[in-house]
Amino acid sequence: MDDLIIAPSVLSLDYSNLQSQLDEVKKSGAQWLHFDVMDGHFVPNLTFGPDLLKGIKKASPLYLDVHLMVNDPVFFSDIFANAGADLITFHCEALGNDMKKVSDLLDHIHKCGIKAGVVVKPKTPVQILEPVLDKMDLVLVMSVEPGFGGQSFMPDMLPKLSWLKDYRENHHLGYRIEIDGGINDQTAKLAREAGADVLVAGSYVFKNDICDAVDSLR
Ligand code: DX5
Ligand code: ZN
User: Fold this and answer.
1) Whose CA is nearest to atom 10 of ligand 1?
2) Binding of substrate: at which residues (predicted)?
3) To 10 degrees, what angle do helices 185-194 and 210-217 make?
4) Is there a contact between 57 and 82 (Cβ–Cβ < 8 Å)?
């Protein structure tokens, strides 16, 4: 998987300039928008509902990568699939790391006609996903504790990326490997070398010149 995807996280977007910031992201050549849904329970923060996703879909042609940080991903996956998500990822921890439930939800999201993947928190070993990796379009590795933008990258998450890359190659699978949290020009390099092919970046993109920041992640 040689083509690198940059997914700016709208968590750090300046909402007083929504359209111009989205236009700038498009101009930067970033291909996806990362949309962090937090329910105030799975993580101690509260963010966006489906109406905002619908608005962003009208305001930008970019692919919508929805990251569900919620206690009930079964309920919310339908809501965000209907609102226009192109890809939905959910945390296996929210399903008690029960791979039967994870597998069923992946099937359900696929039946909605969109792509599906699973997220692991820093303390969750990625190897627990082995039984369901063949069903996934993407695996998302958290390199910070989920909940807030602007935290520091955890380098000890890099071996998860390498493991996923080797497993994909050895088993001829096709999932993408996404990394989320603390990505900047330096940590992007480490993540890419370890195997990431989708880079989420929030504060680094939106607290700098958007085009320059996206360029420097490539
Ligand atoms: C954190 C979110 C991230 C967040 C990343 O829970 O999942 O997507 O926006 O922000 P930065 O890039 O600032 O670490
Ligand atoms: Zn995220």
Assistant:
1) 149
2) 9, 67, 147-150, 180-182, 202-203
3) 30
4) no
pLDDT digits (tens, 9 = 90+) for 64-96: 999 999 999 999 999 999 999 999 999 999 999
CB-facing half-sphere around the CA of 39: CA atoms within 13 A: 15
| The overall pTM is greater than 0.90 | yes
User: In 3-state terms, what secondary structure has residue 23?
Assistant: helix
Provide the b/e sequence for 118-156 (b: ≥16 CB within 10 Å). bbbbeebebeebeebbebbbbbbbbbbebbbbeeebbee
Q: Annotated catalytic, 137?
A: no
Known binding residues: 9, 34, 36, 67, 147-150, 180-182, 202-203
CA separation for the pair 44, 147 (Å, rounded): 6
Task: Kindly list the structural domains of the chain, giving each domain's residue range(s) and its CATH number in brackets, ordered by start.
Answer: 5-216 (3.20.20.70)
Q: Report in angstroms the alpha-carbon separations of 49 from 62, 80, 216.
A: 18, 8, 31
Tokens of 214: 């996206």
Within 13 Å of residue 101, how many CA atoms lie on the same side as its CB?
12
Residue with tokens 């792509």: 115
